[in-house]
Design goal:
With about 300 residues, this protein is of the alpha+beta class. The protein has one domain: D-amino Acid Aminotransferase, Chain A, domain 1 (2-Layer Sandwich). About 25% of the residues lie in helices and about 20% in strands. It has eight helices and eleven strands. The strands form two sheets. It has a six-stranded antiparallel β-sheet with strand order 9-8-7-6-10-11. The chain has a five-stranded mixed β-sheet with strand order 1-5-2-3-4, covered by helices on one side. A hairpin with a 6-residue loop joins strand 8 and strand 9. Helix 1 packs across helix 8. The longest helix has 17 residues. It is globular and about 55 Å long.
Length: about 300
């Protein structure tokens, strides 16, 4: 049974601009007009795995379980003590990180900045002390799978079919912490800027960096997270070789679409695929520099094509 769901239209979703100049304006137009069948597959957290493997660009996490049947029943006795459980279509809710290893993963804080997305569950309780039994987790996932993604104009996400739940490997670095987020914004197969984020389970900080020089790109107005002052140059921080591999990986994965944010993880010396994001923040305007730079890069890509 699929549950009814009233579609959500955010205030800026219908602000169509005839001649877009900012990245958010291009994203909104893409929401309304781009119906390329590859887009739902890229947004699908399960189907995108095969797409990434076909590109031979980087590693994907080990998959322990997949099911599109409801009610959701997970093979708990067969799962490792640490894993990630999530639906394939719902980015902003229902991501459970099971952390029942001998030592708790590092860097998890009560009242984390993005509690609405992640629940780190250890001994059946999340980071805020809320109880999550196995059946409660399954009921939550069942409700999400039965409901279509709500945002009306995020076509590629709403078109994902079938909807289901996957259980995959939890990536940890040698310090026992989850890796930082590396999000490469690509335009017509070329890296435009790199969004580097730390503190996923504490207090998120975020930088933008140039994909060639690694230089920090300052953001002034309307930025969501404070900057990472300790990383003035991402190329210096990661090293030339790793920085170049990350850019090359993202470009290889982005060649089939005008724009996509390629989310990657660096675990020691390996690069892993995270997910594709076609509509960051559902097209909401971001910082002045983000908007103008992204708009210029999108237009340059159109001119090249």
């Amino acid at each position: 049974m699929r549950l009814p769901f009233s579609p959500v239209i955010l205030p800026w979703h219908e602000d169509l601009v005839d001649e877009p100049e900012l990245i958010s304006e291009f994203i909104i137009r893409s929401m309304h007009e781009n119906r390329n069948p590859i887009l739902p597959m890229m947004e699908d957290k399960f189907a995108s795995r095969e797409y990434v493997l076909s590109k031979s660009a980087c590693k994907v996490t080990e998959l322990f379980h997949w099911s599109g049947k409801t009610p959701i029943r997970l093979p708990w006795d067969e799962l490792p003590s640490r894993c990630v459980i999530k639906t394939n279509h719902w980015s902003g809710d229902g991501i459970f990180i099971i952390d029942d290893g001998e030592e708790a993963i590092g860097g998890v804080q009560k009242d984390m900045a993005i509690t609405e997305i992640y629940r780190v569950v250890r001994a059946n309780r999340d980071q805020d002390g809320n109880r999550w039994s196995k059946r409660k987790i399954e009921r939550k996932l069942t409700r999400l799978v039965r409901r279509r993604y709500p945002f009306l104009y995020e076509w590629a996400v709403r078109a994902i079919d079938p909807r289901g739940v996957l259980v995959e490997e939890l990536l940890l670095n040698k310090e026992g912490c989850t890796p930082d987020d590396i999000k490469v914004h690509c335009f017509f197969g070329k890296a435009g800027f790199i969004q580097y984020e730390v503190g996923k389970f504490t207090s998120v900080k975020q930088n933008l960096h140039h994909p060639l020089s690694g230089d920090f790109i300052e953001q002034t107005q309307n930025r969501k997270w404070p900057p990472i002052t300790e990383i003035p140059n991402l190329k210096d921080f990661l090293g030339d070789e790793m920085f170049g591999r990350i850019v090359a990986t993202a470009e290889k994965l982005s060649v089939d679409v005008p724009y996509v944010r390629v989310d990657l993880f660096m675990v020691d010396t390996e690069i892993y695929f995270g997910e594709f994001t076609l509509y960051p923040r559902s097209g909401e305007k971001q910082s002045k520099e983000w908007e103008e730079l992204g708009g210029e890069l999108w237009q340059e890509g159109l001119d090249r094509s």
